[in-house]
C-alpha cells in the first residue's frame, strides 16, 4: 500500500512524463541494454530502432503515474502487456533490472531529486508486483492447459504455402508429436529464431491464422520491407530460408484480442494488409461452429497481387449465406480494373461502411497498420459504435489511436 505522500509525489510527475516520457524511456533502453545485453535476446530490435517500444513504454509509465492512486483502472492494460511478456519469456527476475534502469533514466533525463526517485522506486515495486502476479498466472495457465507448455517448444514446418506476392503461410506441428494446446481465435504465438551471423536471438509474434481445434498451427507472415534499412529480418528469413521440415521454436498462444463467441450480435471483421491473419481465425471459427451470426468480412489492400486468401474467403461466402465479403483496393492493377474484382477503389471510409453494414449495433474487430487502425477507429467512433463493441489488435507495441 502506497502512502498518500508517495502517491502525491508520483502524480506530480505526470506533466513531466507527458513532456519527456519518450526521452526517458529511450535512455532507459540504452542503459538496460548496455548493462544487460542478454536482454537483447528477448526484445524486438526493429521496434527499438523505429521508436515504437520506447513510445509504448512511455505511454504505460504515464498511465501508471496518472492512476497510481487507483491501479485497478489499468489492470486491462497490464493484462494486455502481460500476454506479450509471457509470450516472449519475460520473467519475474527481469523486473528489478527494469526498475533500476528506469530510475536511473528518470534521474538523468529529468534531473529528478532523491525524493521523487524514492517515491517512484516505491511505486514501481507495487506496479511490478501487479505485472509479476498476473504473468505468473498466465505462465501457469499456458503450461497446465491440455497440450500446453512452458516457454518455447519446437515445431516442424509441415507445409509452406504462398498466399500472395508478400504473404506466406507456415503450417506447424509439434516436433515431439504431443497434443496441441487450443487457443482463442485472434491469439498469437512468438516465433524464436537464431539467425546465422546474428549475435542475439530474434523473437517475433504472429497471429494464428486458422481456427483452433486442428492438429497444426498456422501463421501467415508478410515479407516486411521497411524504410531506412529496417527490413523485416525475421519475416525475410522465414520467407527465404525456412522450408518444410525445418524446426521453429514457438511459445504457447497468447493475447486478449479474441472473438467473443458468447455474443449474438453481427460480426464485422475489418482488416488492412496482413491484418487479415487474426480475422481468418475468427472467420473460420464462426463457420466451423455453425454460427448463425451475420458476418461482414471487409478487407483493404493495395491490389490483388498482395491480397492474401482472397479465393478462400470468396468460397466461404458462396457456401455460407450469412457471410458477406467486401474488398477495397487503394491502387488496383489494370487487370483488377478490367475484371472489377473489388468493391471499392481507394480507402475504407465511414460512408462506404454505412452502405454495406446495416447497423452500428455489431461487434467490430479490426487490425492492420497503425494509420489504418486510427482511421477505422475514428470512423466507428463517429458512427456511435459503443467502446465495448470496438476491438482491435496492434502488431507490435501498442500505440494510441487518438
UniProtKB/TrEMBL annotation:
Q: Where is this site: Involved in heme-bound ligand stabilization and O-O bond activation?
A: 29
Q: Present the record's domain note.
A: Consists of two distinct domains; an N-terminal heme-containing oxygen-binding domain and a C-terminal reductase domain with binding sites for FAD and NAD(P)H.
Report the catalytic activity.
Answer: 2 nitric oxide + NADPH + 2 O2 = 2 nitrate + NADP(+) + H(+); 2 nitric oxide + NADH + 2 O2 = 2 nitrate + NAD(+) + H(+)
Is this entry keyworded Zinc?
no
Q: Name one GO molecular function term.
A: nitric oxide dioxygenase NAD(P)H activity
Question: Site (Influences the redox potential of the prosthetic heme and FAD groups): which residue positions?
Answer: 84, 393
Enzyme Commission number(s) of this protein: 1.14.12.17
Please give the name of this protein: Flavohemoprotein
State the gene name recorded for this protein.
hmpA
Q: Describe the location of the Globin domain by residue ranges.
A: 1-136
Q: Which residues bind heme b?
A: 85
Q: What does this protein do?
A: Is involved in NO detoxification in an aerobic process, termed nitric oxide dioxygenase (NOD) reaction that utilizes O(2) and NAD(P)H to convert NO to nitrate, which protects the bacterium from various noxious nitrogen compounds. Therefore, plays a central role in the inducible response to nitrosative stress.
Its source organism is Bacillus yunxiaonensis
The protein's enzyme class: oxidoreductase
**What segment(s) does the record annotate as region Reductase?**
147-402
Cofactor annotation remark: Binds 1 heme b (iron(II)-protoporphyrin IX) group per subunit.
Q: Which cofactor does it need?
A: heme b; FAD
Binding sites annotated in the UniProt record for NADP(+): 273-278
Please list the residues that bind FAD: 188, 204-207, 394-397
Keyword field contains Plastid: no
The active site is formed by: 95 (charge relay system), 135 (charge relay system)
Recorded family membership: Belongs to the globin family. Two-domain flavohemoproteins subfamily. In the C-terminal section; belongs to the flavoprotein pyridine nucleotide cytochrome reductase family.
All residue ranges annotated as the FAD-binding FR-type domain in the record: 150-260
Amino acid at each position: 500500500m502506497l502512502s498518500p505522500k508517495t502517491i502525491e509525489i508520483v502524480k506530480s510527475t505526470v506533466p513531466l512524463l507527458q513532456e519527456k516520457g519518450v526521452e526517458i524511456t529511450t535512455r532507459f533502453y540504452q542503459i538496460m541494454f548496455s548493462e544487460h545485453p542478454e536482454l537483447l535476446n528477448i526484445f524486438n530490435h526493429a521496434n527499438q530502432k523505429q521508436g515504437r517500444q520506447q513510445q509504448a513504454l512511455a505511454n504505460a509509465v504515464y498511465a501508471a503515474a496518472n492512476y497510481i492512486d487507483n491501479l485497478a483502472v489499468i489492470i486491462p492494460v497490464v493484462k494486455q502487456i502481460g500476454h506479450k511478456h509471457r509470450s516472449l519469456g519475460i520473467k519475474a527476475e527481469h523486473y528489478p533490472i527494469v526498475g533500476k534502469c528506469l530510475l536511473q533514466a528518470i534521474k538523468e533525463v529529468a534531473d529528478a531529486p532523491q525524493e521523487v526517485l524514492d517515491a517512484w522506486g516505491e511505486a514501481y515495486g507495487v506496479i511490478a508486483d501487479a505485472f509479476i502476479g498476473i504473468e505468473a498466472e498466465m505462465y501457469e495457465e499456458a503450461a497446465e492447459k491440455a497440450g500446453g507448455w512452458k516457454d518455447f517448444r519446437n515445431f516442424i514446418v509441415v507445409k509452406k504455402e504462398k498466399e500472395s506476392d508478400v504473404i506466406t503461410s507456415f503450417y506447424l506441428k509439434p516436433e515431439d508429436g504431443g497434443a496441441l494446446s487450443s487457443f482463442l481465435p485472434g491469439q498469437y504465438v512468438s516465433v524464436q529464431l537464431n539467425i546465422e551471423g546474428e549475435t542475439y536471438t530474434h523473437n517475433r509474434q504472429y497471429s494464428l491464422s486458422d481456427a483452433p481445434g486442428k492438429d497444426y498451427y498456422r501463421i501467415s507472415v508478410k515479407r516486411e520491407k521497411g524504410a531506412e534499412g529496417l527490413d523485416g529480418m525475421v519475416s525475410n528469413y522465414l520467407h527465404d530460408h525456412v522450408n518444410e521440415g525445418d524446426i521453429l521454436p514457438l511459445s504457447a498462444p497468447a493475447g486478449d484480442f479474441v472473438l467473443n463467441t458468447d455474443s449474438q450480435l453481427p460480426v464485422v471483421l475489418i482488416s488492412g494488409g496482413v491484418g487479415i491473419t487474426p480475422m481468418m481465425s475468427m472467420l473460420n471459427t464462426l463457420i466451423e461452429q455453425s454460427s448463425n451470426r451475420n458476418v461482414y468480412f471487409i478487407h483493404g489492400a493495395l491490389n490483388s497481387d498482395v491480397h492474401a486468401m482472397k479465393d478462400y474467403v470468396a468460397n466461404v461466402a458462396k457456401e455460407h449465406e450469412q457471410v458477406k465479403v467486401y474488398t477495397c483496393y487503394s491502387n488496383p492493377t489494370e487487370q483488377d480494373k478490367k475484371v472489377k474484382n473489388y468493391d471499392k477503389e481507394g480507402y475504407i471510409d465511414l460512408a462506404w461502411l454505412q452502405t454495406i453494414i446495416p447497423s452500428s449495433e455489431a461487434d467490430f474487430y479490426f487490425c492492420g497498420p497503425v494509420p489504418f487502425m486510427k482511421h477505422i477507429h475514428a470512423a466507428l467512433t463517429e458512427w456511435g459504435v459503443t467502446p465495448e463493441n470496438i476491438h482491435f489488435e496492434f502488431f507490435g507495441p501498442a500505440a494510441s489511436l487518438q
